[in-house]
Fold each of these.
Amino acid sequence: MSMRKTEVESEMPIITYLEAIRSAMCEEMVRDDNVFVLGEDIGKGGVMNATKGMRDRFGERRVLDTPLTESAIVGVAIGAAMVDMRPIAEIQFADFIFPATNQIISEAAKIRYRSNNDWQCPIVIRVPYGATGGGGLYHSQCPESVFFGTPGLKIVAPSTAYDAKGLMKASVRDDDPVLYFEHKKCYLYISDEVPEEDYTVPIGIAAVRREGGDITVIAYGMAVHHALKASEELAKEGISTHVLDLRTLHPLDQPAILEAAAKTGKILIFHEDNKTGGIGAEISAILAERLLYELDAPIMRFCPPDIPAVGMAPTLEKFYLPTVDRLKKAMRQLAES
Amino acid sequence: MSMRKTEVESEMPIITYLEAIRSAMCEEMVRDDNVFVLGEDIGKGGVMNATKGMRDRFGERRVLDTPLTESAIVGVAIGAAMVDMRPIAEIQFADFIFPATNQIISEAAKIRYRSNNDWQCPIVIRVPYGATGGGGLYHSQCPESVFFGTPGLKIVAPSTAYDAKGLMKASVRDDDPVLYFEHKKCYLYISDEVPEEDYTVPIGIAAVRREGGDITVIAYGMAVHHALKASEELAKEGISTHVLDLRTLHPLDQPAILEAAAKTGKILIFHEDNKTGGIGAEISAILAERLLYELDAPIMRFCPPDIPAVGMAPTLEKFYLPTVDRLKKAMRQLAES
Amino acid sequence: MSLPNVTKHRQLGLMDDQVLKMYSVMVLARKFDERATLIQRSGKTAFHISSIGQETAQVAAAFALEPHHDYFLPYYRDYAFVLSVGMTVRELMLALFLKAEDVNGGRQMPGHFGYRKHHIVTASSPVATQVLHAVGIALTAVMKKEDRVAFVTFGEGASNQGDVHEAFNFAGVFKLPVIFLCENNQYAISIPAHRQVAGRIVDRAAGYGFPGVRVDGNDALEVYRVVREARDRALRGAGPTLIEAMLYRIPPHSTSDDDMLYRTKEEVEYYKEQDGIQHFRRYLSECGVLNDEQDRYISENAVREINEASRYADQAPYPAPEDAMRHVYAEDGGGV
Amino acid sequence: MSLPNVTKHRQLGLMDDQVLKMYSVMVLARKFDERATLIQRSGKTAFHISSIGQETAQVAAAFALEPHHDYFLPYYRDYAFVLSVGMTVRELMLALFLKAEDVNGGRQMPGHFGYRKHHIVTASSPVATQVLHAVGIALTAVMKKEDRVAFVTFGEGASNQGDVHEAFNFAGVFKLPVIFLCENNQYAISIPAHRQVAGRIVDRAAGYGFPGVRVDGNDALEVYRVVREARDRALRGAGPTLIEAMLYRIPPHSTSDDDMLYRTKEEVEYYKEQDGIQHFRRYLSECGVLNDEQDRYISENAVREINEASRYADQAPYPAPEDAMRHVYAEDGGGV
Ligand SMILES: Cc1ncc(C[n+]2csc(CCOP(=O)(O)OP(=O)(O)O)c2C)c(N)n1
Ligand SMILES: Cc1ncc(C[n+]2csc(CCOP(=O)(O)OP(=O)(O)O)c2C)c(N)n1
Ligand SMILES: [Mg+2]
Ligand SMILES: [Mg+2]
């Protein structure tokens, strides 16, 4: 699936989302000696190949294989960041971020605030999340809502290779802690044009992925691609969909959300995380508070059911995961409401 | 502040919220040998006196002083619960629950589900939360939204002594893990009538605390009392407020929320937790999805600003914490909108 | 080689039929594991994580414990262990094939053991969480004055998680009847033990005031002996024991891993030679407990059982899709 | 008592004026602490957590380190430590009174140290998190080939947190220049060390392959010596050291605690007699480094400084209410 139409004269290389993450890390390490990556098994390239080849290039100090201890990975990164390093910490799977919760919420998020700006904590924590199929309960989770709403943290969740690279660079250069949620399904499934020259994608800014007038779908990560596919198919049925890709989850781009919602007055929020307490709830609440009179239909959320995560058996997986077909049904219903 | 008017012939003793929690624990320990309490410093009575006198009564085995290790407190409790004990684990302050996040979210919440009902995990985790004044950044937090929305967990948050006792008993007897959020400000500030005989308050059921026709305030914990005070004062200005006390935060009592909201069509959600990503977001989203056409005003949230927590200096504290006056202003605005 | 008058296993109180049984389970586990790998390669299943190289220690430990009485918290490589305490190959195959009849209803990855009727406590993927659960179960045994131990295993990588420290300290303070077995198989995915573990895991026990014992994990009778002793200590009220079994993970980390990225064929070949099952087989032959015919019979039996089980599991139905919605909470609401 | 030809402090390379300075800081810290307690009792401030009984070890450790060069991660009782590495009484009073000019802007509870210009790393309330930060800072020193150490303290209760284990292991694997000092003051709020800590904390170091040293925390020169040695080791690239300083917390846990619920007056009185500051004073007099007049001068100086500081802090303004909104993120957005 490719996000941007290749124009005839375009010379930009098309790379995968995974390569985009890797090349952003490499370029930042070249640009700034203080940038380094650490995590479990990253020396051999990481279990997902995100850091493939990097140890050979930068040495085992700057591509640091850590013991199997998530709280230490984050805690050590925080220590380093406080003395001017720019660590990029990898959590092997998002499902294993929880041992580091205290370091993230009590420490990283509050260091600037509690010290009245005397100290800062510019870390990036890479969090490979989401279902790829065959991952089961503990290799598929979307834990972003646990950290969402924590003042002091930033959370990004790119959906394209272009954004993956630009947001990684912006995250590394940001002076505050950033949780970088990378959807595992996007790694190889998503490729698009990425400039060779240095660029960043600003944190806090959403992107309109498709213009439309009947309904608005707000999504992030892999869900954006499902939404685009569904929109394309529904266009043939005469339903015109506006698609907003959040890109940054915290802080949310409120102006963009309000604008995209106002465009159609019929809003569907779509994410792979559980419905209850998900980021969709906040978006809906923002709209219900600030855009109520422009709504033409109830604000809908299309999300997996409130069960712990996707089961391993193929039948359970299929039941749980959002499909383009089910999404289309929800979109159609909204359009017709 | 007292919740229920003492009727002339009432013989029910009036006790504090703190006493209610303690007496519920004691009565459950008498009723069932498998119930025990564990936590830091609970032998001497706990730093808040919640377990005062219990070691003398039940012995140091059943009122177990643990090492200073929250993950162990919860993890050990989980182990015991899986072999039929009914542990009540105390986290000394809600701010210190984060080291136990992995045990709560990856373990307690998923034990029944992942084992396909072969195992269960009936633990209660007591979480003293909220600001009392003079607590600063790390002794005042409201971390309920971190756990909210985690399928498999239940979360309760009583506001009255009656509910504190009844919900504690229900939590102990519940076959699933319950986070019991007890607001520290309520401990001694709130007293009301509590029957001498055994009773429970069902998990999952909200309570209407005041009937009214102009606006609806939805709250929980200490916020309920502010809401009632504000409602009483606004009644003199001719504004009639309907107040819903959630009592259980997860799963939310959706019918009660819909009913309370429909009553007035003007809804203010009020909690002490940060606004963004708080439980108010989910309530708003439920209403925006299911009650849109009965809304007469945007759904408002009255919450502290999105900063890490309350500062220690009195000026910072006053700025941050919700006051009845500021609440009244928000309610008045809504009523007049 | 000359035999002592009394065989070592008899000295340890093990009857001939018991060591034969131990050997049979090792063979069964090995063959199950080889088959599971083949099935995965054939594309029939998505994933397998192997215990090859660790069966000897697992079986020996299990035979030093009391099935259906003690509580067991095995980690994901403990196929041979769970087969020793009551699980059947059919049950393992149902888990591998993710079928409805699997005790976990096909919800979990294979290797995530759990079976209440066998006292096998349900496991998750985040490593080391179970170590604290074992302590809680041991605490319960003391509170209820029950004569049992909790037995928990984990890898040397997992041993570095904070929960392990908290568990050691908690168990040490209250002198709880728990046995901690670290299966040190030299790697945590790609990280060799010397880059993962500072010092020696076995030496950590002393810091908590309880004994640590290092044992050759390929020596079945030694493992049996130290686990037995640990169990006796625990039941005497003398508290926990940490055992570090020195092993080697023969296959890659899992079917998704390419181990040639971080170790050599030669290294793996070297360790294949140390195989504890072969050691044990030789010992049993030397003692006259096992002859070639019996050995063949044991192998054939294992293969038959595996054939039947895999056929059964392959044909068994998947869980119904909407079963995904069940058991988030107790079905009756769980409440009062 | 006869004096050796060369005084002990000279043997350790400490000049007379240095030990006098050490003594002065101890006295200053003690008097600050007593005053802070009085101020709290008078109702002017909400909360104080005291370091009385721990000053000797704190000052001695600090003098073995390099101020404004090494990095320091003290815990909430380390008043004497932070006074030794550059903080002033005025700065401490501003924190106690929660005033705008406090480096933390009155946001944090007193005792939550942090001051970038003094290389004192910002602290939170959840215990033991800082131990990992120290490891990260030590890692940075190695990566940048800088000749410095990270020095971190924590209580014996805090030592049981998972983060401490992960920190020890991480630092041990990479042989990082970090010094772990556990101030074992026998209590974690109401829990005595023997109910909190299994085994001995000092013995835990061996499990991570680095040295552990137990030292009498009331013996200033011994503490100085072991911290100095630890620093030398660290700078040589020989890795971390764990030091367990044996101390006693004389006051209740904090101004909110009633310690008579869990210990006796007699016990406290016994330990008051062991006061390290008095030991050190006697030693200095015996060496002829300190006479009564100087001692009086040191005390009076301390009192004057405290008087001025508390007057200043008392009169200083509180932070502006709306300042609460600042510094959640970098003010320029923090980005690119
Ligand atoms: C908390 C956590 N982090 C990361 C992982 C991913 N992971 C699965 S197994 C493994 C290595 C475990 O090594 P070890 O404990 O030595 O056991 P072994 O696989 O060698 O038997 C890792 C990193 C995980 N399961 N849990
Ligand atoms: C993670 C965490 N849990 C609980 C607390 C509450 N608490 C504050 S100090 C303390 C005792 C600490 O004891 P110790 O580490 O021995 O230090 P000491 O106070 O004796 O100097 C506790 C339980 C906390 N601050 N952090
Ligand atoms: Mg291993
Ligand atoms: Mg202490």
Note: Residues 17-31 of chain B form the longest helix (15 residues).
Amino acid sequence: MSGLLWYKRSLTLAVIVAAALVLQVLVSLQIVSPYVVASPSSALAAIVDLIRYEGLPVLFARTFAMTFVAALVAIVVGLPLGVIVARSELLRRSFEGWLGAAFSAPIILLYPLFLVVFGRGYVTLVVMGALVGVVPIALKTIEGYLAIPRVLENVAVSLNMTERQRLRHVTVPAVLPHIFAGIRISLIYILINIVAIDFLVSIGGLGYLVGAMYDRYDIPAMYGAILFVVLTSVIFFTILERCESWLSKR
Amino acid sequence: MSGLLWYKRSLTLAVIVAAALVLQVLVSLQIVSPYVVASPSSALAAIVDLIRYEGLPVLFARTFAMTFVAALVAIVVGLPLGVIVARSELLRRSFEGWLGAAFSAPIILLYPLFLVVFGRGYVTLVVMGALVGVVPIALKTIEGYLAIPRVLENVAVSLNMTERQRLRHVTVPAVLPHIFAGIRISLIYILINIVAIDFLVSIGGLGYLVGAMYDRYDIPAMYGAILFVVLTSVIFFTILERCESWLSKR
Amino acid sequence: MGVLNVSGVSKSFAVKGQVVKALDAVDLEVHEGEFVSVIGPSGCGKSTLFSIIGGLQPDYDGRIEVDGRPAVGSHHDIGMVFQEESTFPWRTALENVVLPLQVSGVSKKERDSRGRELIRMVGLEGFEGHYPSQLSGGMKQRISIARTFAFEPRIMLMDEPFGALDEQTRLLLCDKLLEICQSMRQTTLLITHNITEAVQMSDRVVIMSYRPGRIKRIIDIDLPRPRTSDALSSPEFGEYVGEIWRDLRTEASKGMAAEGGARAASGAA
Amino acid sequence: MGVLNVSGVSKSFAVKGQVVKALDAVDLEVHEGEFVSVIGPSGCGKSTLFSIIGGLQPDYDGRIEVDGRPAVGSHHDIGMVFQEESTFPWRTALENVVLPLQVSGVSKKERDSRGRELIRMVGLEGFEGHYPSQLSGGMKQRISIARTFAFEPRIMLMDEPFGALDEQTRLLLCDKLLEICQSMRQTTLLITHNITEAVQMSDRVVIMSYRPGRIKRIIDIDLPRPRTSDALSSPEFGEYVGEIWRDLRTEASKGMAAEGGARAASGAA
Amino acid sequence: QDMDTVKVASAQRGLWTTTLVYFGNEKGIFEKHGLNLEIHWADGGANTQQAVISGAADVAVATGTLGAITAWARGAPVQIIASDFTGGSDLFWYVRGDSEIEKVADLDGHSVSFSRPGSSSHLMAQGVVDNAGVDAEMVPTGGPSATLTAVMSGQVDVGWTAPPTVEEELANGKIRLLFTGNDAPGISDQSVRVDIANRAFLEEKEEVAKRFLAALKETIDWAYDTDEAVEMWAQMHDVSVEVAKAARDRGYPRSAMVLKPVSGVDLSIEQAVASRRLDAPLTDAQVTEMLKWVDMLNK
Ligand SMILES: Nc1ncnc2c1ncn2[C@@H]1O[C@H](COP(=O)(O)OP(=O)(O)OP(=O)(O)O)[C@@H](O)[C@H]1O
Ligand SMILES: Nc1ncnc2c1ncn2[C@@H]1O[C@H](COP(=O)(O)OP(=O)(O)OP(=O)(O)O)[C@@H](O)[C@H]1O
Ligand SMILES: [Mg+2]
Ligand SMILES: [Mg+2]
């Protein structure tokens, strides 16, 4: 496994670096206007100032924390929801498909109202993040729950397992991978929503920073900030991977 | 098939109606503030005015058209991209996973720059929509392409099929379902992005309408407008379903 | 008076309105140390009978007795090997085999040593640490069998354990299983649709009719023990095979036609 | 001088660095109207040979000749039935069967009538409109076979067509196939790992060694024709089965051990 | 004595009127009145008012009159507590130096920007355009710097701004002045921006609100009697004090900075109805109700 994984990682890295280089050239040759796309080097350089003067670390920490909490909420709500729906034929039939589409519709447009209800603060971001995050987790949980091999459940019965043993030895390990897939998707949703709304109403996270830099028309700094948004998602994905392999090892 | 489908539809409908009723009650009992959530009835009522005074039909048509064009572009770009990547081991290894995550990162935040490049108009919306729409289509195409059963390709060879026959009888029918799944996802992305950006910079579609109603504190009208966003997605999904069953029938 | 007594067991399923009678008044008796096979065409109700005896299928007519005491629900004296591939993909071979011991709370140390022993018994030493995805179909089945032996059941209940394997692997595994069962005098009820397998292993072969699943005939196999697959070439062996096939052929033909129909019906849903 | 001549065919695969020799100098000759079976343990290279003869595997050593003319690439005179389930899920039974005709541009009207005829031939009348998902495994295989017959090949090349089916269904289908081939005097090369099947159908059985895949022995089956599965019970039949099994047993045992190892290796990747 | 905290929402950090409260706070004037301000910057229009409606802020300064009226009329829990700025002398509209637009009459078929719907810039631009009877497209472009980008990149033809953001570009001819807010009819004596407060806040802490407005008044006097505020302002935009001072006197005559009365309300209502923010004009009774706090709070 790990060998391949490592290979994959380094490949990805290579591609990213290559892309960066190309961009660098394009920009420095003015083929792409530096008022639209900052050269990677200048973006990286800008990060220094962002840290020194704009309190990047704090903002980064905030966005990270908000995403984390929102994800937790989404899991705490989405998981049971998924299980309930999966267990009920009727609910499932109706929830899947159309509602799925309707759900993923423009919740983000309602941000003003959430501002009204939850006030102009971190709570709003977390709530809206969690809201968009719940759906994929629930859906994937359903999927996983339905994918548990009947035969393994039969084995559990034939071995006279208790409910708890069965949960521990069959249900959880079987559903876990699906749940993690769900968490991955919802993490992206959550992060994008939190950052985007913060960008709009300047509540004080990476989104706000991106917005502020744009308002000053400091393009390199803006990209520097966006880099940190991407970094956030990468960090979360790494953590998730660890959790998963750790959990599935037991 | 159709019997079940019908059953599913009606179930969904039932759920929606039920939800609407509950909301209606909550709002009219002031349990939920009408400054936050409009009662479904008032939202529906507001639609009349939206049509009469705000040119809802035109705005709706615009958003619909923009989404449609963006989707077309996304398909035209994403499909070949997917095929190319699927065919190259190296590209695939690096594109999947991490880049997928990075991709789905906050493109929407770049809208100011797109305004600069493509001007403050429909083009920007279409371009940004297409941009976010490409990724899922490409990914699903890859998935589908890799899922073509080797044995069917062997059958094609053993029957001395020409490249065209092979494409028509094996590749296309095998990949089609995956592609459609991809189109569904990207349609949602596209619609949300187009509406959201339009909401921010009032270019003149449903997003602009939602924004305008919000600026006027006309909450029912705002929800009325949002309803039409959802309607748009529903229409697209219905069309897609038709296309798919029609295509797979031949 | 057998270890396992099945008397008058009937079972029907409601499939889209109409009722399918899967089992009809099945009587069956397995004695201590005996090896009995139930053979019948696909869809005749073998797995249904299997799950009823194993206690996975609570509602049925008739009675199941173990040592004369009525058996309800899953039973400590009955160990099951399933038709489908039933290893836990997230557990290594060893972890799969020791699962029953883990469930009944045996210490890690002890269960490991016993697990390794069982794995040796089914001839898989060296593969303790492999995951099912790294094993061939035949090896996975051997793991499932070892797992059930770890359960130390009085009665071993198997549903086409080798159904998914190619004939040669099957013949080899049958030899292996036969050897183990004979050495342990393991009471076994084997469900199969493979005639050679049934003849090769059994003291008695129970032939089932297609639908409703009834017991059509019981044949005593008196070939000398210990047996191996080499018996294949003996004329008596051929006799038995031929005799059983003559009985089954009609049933199987019925089955093949009907099955397609059934699938079509369900597929149309 | 046979219709199909395989001379000195060898093939190696590079699996993670080390080279696996799948086939080693295989010579084989199939005459007009003859039914030849190739039998060998799992992993001995049967499918490799199959795909080389069928022209799916262009790079190999040795020569394949049809009517004395070297055959390169997929060949109009060779029709293939695959080991894996190979019906097109998005086509009905009829549409599956007529695919070869459609490819070679036969008019809709004609190909339908011929398609129905073929479906009747394999005993599936009434299922023309069903999709594979609505058919049982046995029925799907019959569809694939009918599809290959629609191709009207001079040589029918089959890779374990019944490998996935239960023994009884297999016996019945073998009878069916046998009947068809005999009536059409269809030249056939059947690849199988089922001894009974080989003996029941063939004029000659080619036994392959495990690895590298070599031809270990060729046995002529002179049982009276027309044959059916009833021959099962005849002592000669048992003789042949026993004889072949004695040869195969050692190979199969080698296979079973090695295969697991191989899977482990590949699985570990 | 112990301090009362007032949460203040203000639009667009950097404009004279929106930032004055901040300067005053820095100077310590509010502290002197026993007030401890928490200022946060929204981006004008409905979002500033949302802060107050949601209770996230107690008061908002320098927010558009139209938006305030609409919010109040729709029953949102907000009250107008003072006039922030009267007349349109502080906002002006410009075109690129190379634009073919010479005068307002040339605006036909061109686009004119404003900050956000319902803001004072919206109302003035609309006024000028309507008055000239030209058919121009109205486009919300956000803050002055974003707007400058929009103009320079040709997204809009006419940009809006407020001193001293673009003094430099004006000087070196990159842009040309086209019209100011006062060119809109009736604007010169209309309260285009008001200060608003959350109703609950007013009812619970009327006396705090009084002190806030008193401090605000003192801040204004200080900002015109001394040059300290202007210096702060100049530093914020790093322009010379002279430039800043000129900008203040041209754009923000002291006469426009009276907290009371809120004038030109009828015109505002008229415009609100015209832009369909109100379904019907407010009755006199409603108007009195809407403005009652202005008199109660401003001594
Ligand atoms: N849960 C179920 N619901 C409805 N019908 C069922 C169910 N289980 C079995 N059946 C029906 O009962 C009959 C017997 O099924 P069963 O699986 O016992 O046959 P089988 O002999 O095990 O077949 P095979 O040899 O293919 O395993 C079949 O017709 C099947 O369709
Ligand atoms: N494409 C390939 N790449 C690498 N190794 C291969 C490939 N195809 C086959 N092999 C190896 O060649 C050997 C023969 O494979 P083949 O499939 O021909 O055996 P087989 O006799 O058909 O087995 P079975 O009876 O299970 O179908 C095996 O060891 C297999 O691992
Ligand atoms: Mg069964
Ligand atoms: Mg093979």
Note: Residues D 46-47, 83, 159 surround magnesium ion (ligand 4) (CB under 6 Å).
